[in-house]
Design goal:
The chain is of the alpha+beta class and 871 residues long. The strands form six sheets. It has a six-stranded parallel β-sheet, sandwiched between helices. A five-stranded antiparallel β-sheet has the order 2-1-5-4-3, sandwiched between helices. A five-stranded antiparallel β-sheet has the order 7-6-10-9-8. It has 27 helices and 28 strands.
């Protein structure tokens, strides 16, 4: 039973909640439901309590009332508390709802305002903004900027596709949409679009992908940069144009720091300094002072000028190309300063003046060359009036520049050319052609000289002759040299001829003179034929001397110094002098009253005296007096002080004086110069006096000249005097020399000379063995060498030469004395053994007396080294 009541009560409570829950959740319904529940609980509480404790309730019925009242109180309290709670809750909820409602209203207002703001932004944005359907590109909405630029109305947007605006193929446009769909957004992409007028424009766009009501849309914002692009292209063109102008400028343009770092340069400057382009020079040049200036001093000179005139300078400077080659430029530059007032950078341009500088240098060189040229340069006007002469003209002609200017070349006219010569010259140059030829002109002092001239016209741009320029070279010495060469060729020919015949001629003279001497030996002193033999012998000796002089003249024979009496030498030559100078000139010979011994080459001294006599003859074409004298002089200190060419000492003096035309100071200054002559062409080489001067110098002597125009000239020769006497031999008498009984071998290929020598030796008591060539001599020597005392050996022989025969003889008997004889000293290896072996040498033709004395001395005293003199 108890269980039944409880269950019924629970079912009733449960049904309440089900009912309440089915009625909704309003606040009033909840409150009423709660009150109902409380009354049910109050009504049921005694039953519940009785059901739980049936015994107690039955025993104490008042407990039911207690339980009932307690339940009512509890319910009332609970209802009050619940109602209070609910009331607070409701109030709070209402406030929250009111607040949320206010927030919602505010949010809606903010949204409306934001929507309005963004609509204003969308509509009035300076950029073109479009919303388009991603599937086909149809434009759904667009900003005012887009509408105005495209010239369309908003209601017509649905007729447009964004793809119609983009320049490109359909595939390119589709790839654009696919990219947005794939990536969801693109930013700052360039694109080319069609402008309303059909032209192409340039934009930068950004697009994001949106989903609106399940549809994919694109929001794209584009910035039209067509004008900027055009401006940029124009700027690029302008910069390119400027760069082209900058690089193609005819001057080198640069900017550098004040401390020497190159900041900017154009191609012209790069090429000027030897680089390919501006990039190369900017990358390679680190220091201007070290790399483009020849020195830091040159750059410092420019910096100093800029510091003094920072607003701008213009000056010439030297630069250095890559590789070191110098170049020159005119620099125009100005200096800029930083905010602190310090020198910052230099802007400038360099004008290449290297060619101008080089041309100026070439011009200066040319001017210097003309001024310093040894050739004469003369410039005249078209009429021949002299406008310019160089120093060579002054030196050669004797006229100063002041004297020549304003004159014509006729001032140099020598009279050696006829009128036709000058007419041909003028006709040639007046028609614009160049004249070349030799001209004989006259110096200011009256002397003549020969010029090799080239005269050319100078024309202006119109071809008119403005000047004549003459380049003339003094060929006087050259012609003399040519004449000398001709004379040398003649002398060479003479030398070859003399050398070719000297051997045979001397052998003939040897035989002739020897046999004459032999004939004279057997004649009494008073025999009437003796004078004839003596004259024949003298003639033979003179012939021998002539051969020796010819060899000397042709340089085929070296000088042979001997002790000579100057008086005797002059006396012996006078007869020849008389024949050379002619009968219209009187010769006066005034010798010193005692002998004057000098150490000289007789032949060369004869040549000196002969040259002086010939020079005197030419100075007296109409005849006169030639005076030759000798004397002694002591050249002391006062004399040497008065004559700079003199040397102290005691001298034999030879003077040659003529009464001819004399010479002026100008000629005297050059009298001993080689090839200098005042004689007419063909009458002298200018070597006579020069040769005399050279020979005297070689003899340690001095030569001087004094002269006066119209009164003649006097040459004085000073030769060192030797303190010994020369024994004069009477050449017309053959004196007997000591003979002997020794056995002598004569080796000589010339039969007459061999017979003559054998006769002389045999007549003196010697036994002579003869050999006709070197081979025969060696064979005979092998058989008789123990009996022989001397071998007389010729040099030039068949089979074995003298040298070869000598070598064989020395191998057989090294100590055998040998006397070498030769008609001509060839100066070859055939004769060099004589000096090497220190043998005695006798030059043919020799006299009998010389042969006998030489043989006796060698046998008695041994070899006589060197060439033995003829007595």
């Amino acid at each position: 039973m108890k269980t039944t009541h409880v269950c019924n009560a629970r079912r009733l409570f449960a049904s309440f909640f089900c009912t309440a829950s089915s009625r909704g959740v309003g606040f009033t319904s909840i409150r009423n439901s709660l009150l109902t529940v409380l009354f049910y609980l109050l009504a049921l509480s005694p039953a519940i309590a009785a059901e739980e404790a049936p015994g107690s309730v039955k025993d104490h019925p008042w407990l039911l009332i207690v339980f009932f009242l307690g339940g009512v109180i509890a319910v009332t309290l609970a209802v009050f508390l619940w109602n209070f709670y609910l009331q607070n809750r409701v109030n709070k909820t209402v406030k929250e709802l009111e607040k949320k409602n206010e927030q919602l209203v505010q949010s809606q207002e903010d949204i409306r305002r934001s929507e309005h703001k963004f609509r204003l932004i969308f509509e009035n944005a300076p950029y073109a903004i479009v919303i388009f359907r991603l599937d086909d590109g149809t434009i759904l909405d667009a900003s005012k900027a887009f509408l105005e630029r495209r010239g369309v109305r908003k209601k017509d947007l649905h007729k447009m596709s964004i793809m119609d605006l983009v320049v490109g193929s359909e595939k390119e446009k589709q790839r654009y949409l696919d990219r947005i769909r794939k990536e969801g957004a693109v930013h700052n992409e360039p694109a080319i679009i069609y402008e309303p007028d059909g032209s192409h424009g340039h934009i930068f766009y950004s697009t994001v992908l949106l989903e609106v009501d399940g549809e994919l849309q694109g929001l794209s914002m584009a910035l039209n940069v067509t004008k900027q692009k055009q401006a940029q292209e124009a700027l690029v063109l302008s910069e390119e144009k400027f760069r082209n102008v900058f690089n193609s400028a005819p001057v080198g343009i640069f900017r550098s720091t004040f401390d020497g770092r190159l900041i900017e340069a154009n191609d012209t400057l790069a090429r000027f300094l030897g680089y390919e382009n501006r990039e190369q020079i900017l990358s390679r040049v680190e220091s201007l002072g070290k790399e483009i200036y020849p020195s830091e001093m040159e750059r410092q000179r420019i910096l100093d000028a800029l510091l003094e005139s920072p607003e701008g300078i213009r000056m010439e400077a030297e630069y250095k190309r890559q590789g070191g080659k110098p170049v020159y430029g005119i620099v125009n530059a100005k200096l800029s300063f930083d905010e602190n007032g310090n020198p910052a950078w230099i802007d400038g341009a360099i004008e290449d003046v290297t060619r101008i500088k080089q041309a100026a240098m070439e011009t200066r060189k040319l001017a210097a060359a003309v001024e310093q040229s040894s050739d004469i340069i003369v410039i005249t006007d078209p009429k021949g009036v002299i406008q310019y002469v160089n120093p060579a003209f002054e030196k050669i002609t004797g006229y100063s520049r002041a004297e020549a200017l304003g004159q014509t070349p006729r001032v140099l006219k020598s009279g050696k050319h006829d009128q036709a010569f000058y007419e041909d010259l003028w006709q040639t140059i007046l028609v614009g052609e160049t004249w070349k030829g030799n001209i004989i002109n006259k110096r200011k002092d009256g002397s003549l000289f020969t010029e090799k001239a080239t005269i050319s016209p100078m024309v202006d741009d119109n071809g008119e002759i403005t000047n004549f320029v003459a380049s003339k070279r003094d060929i006087t010495d050259e012609m003399a040299l040519r004449e000398q060469n001709r004379q040398m060729q003649k002398m060479e020919a003479l030398g070859r001829l003399t050398g070719g015949v000297a051997h045979d001629f001397n052998n003939l003279l040897q035989a002739m003179n020897g046999f004459v001497e032999l004939a004279g030996m057997d004649l009494p002193q008073d025999h009437r034929s003796r004078p004839f033999l003596e004259q024949t012998l003298i003639a033979g000796r003179r012939a021998a001397n002539l051969v020796q002089q010819l060899l000397l003249f042709s340089r085929k024979k070296d000088m042979q110094f001997k002790y000579v009496d100057l008086n005797t030498a002059v006396d012996d030559l006078l007869k020849m002098v008389g024949r050379i100078i002619g009968t219209d000139i009187q010769v006066q010979w005034r010798p010193w009253n005692s002998s004057l011994t000098i150490h000289a080459d007789p032949g060369m001294m004869d040549q000196v005296l002969m040259n002086l006599c010939v020079n005197a003859r030419d100075a007296m074409p109409d005849g006169g007096v030639l005076t030759i004298s000798t004397s002694i002089m002591e050249a002391d200190a006062p004399f040497c002080a008065a004559h700079s060419w003199a040397k102290q000492g005691k001298y034999a003096v030879l003077k040659v004086r003529d009464t001819g035309m004399g010479m002026g100071e100008e000629v005297l200054d050059r009298i001993f110069e080689p090839f200098f002559t005042t004689k007419e062409e063909g009458r002298g080489t200018g070597l006579g006096l020069a040769t005399a001067y050279g020979v005297v110098q070689q003899h340690g002597g001095m030569i001087s000249v004094s002269s006066e125009l119209g009164k003649g000239s006097e040459f004085t020769i000073f030769l060192p005097l030797v303190g010994r006497e020369v024994r004069v031999i009477n050449k017309g008498v053959v004196e007997k020399a000591a003979g002997g009984d020794e056995i002598i071998l004569i080796v000589e290929d010339d039969a007459m000379v061999r017979q003559m020598a054998s006769a002389i030796l045999e007549k003196a008591g010697y036994t002579v063995l003869e050999a006709g060539d070197g081979r025969e001599a060696v064979t005979l020597f092998k058989l008789q060498h123990d009996r022989l005392s001397l071998v007389i050996l010729d040099i030039t022989m068949p089979n074995l030469t003298g040298k070869e025969a000598f070598e064989e003889i020395r191998r057989i008997k090294p100590e055998m004395p040998v006397l070498v004889c030769s008609a001509y000293d060839e100066g070859t290896d055939k004769t060099d053994f004589v000096a090497k072996e220190e043998l005695s040498y006798l030059q043919k033709p020799y006299s009998a007396n010389t042969l006998l004395k030489t043989v006796r001395k060698i046998i008695d005293h041994g070899p006589l080294t060197g060439i033995l003199p003829e007595e």
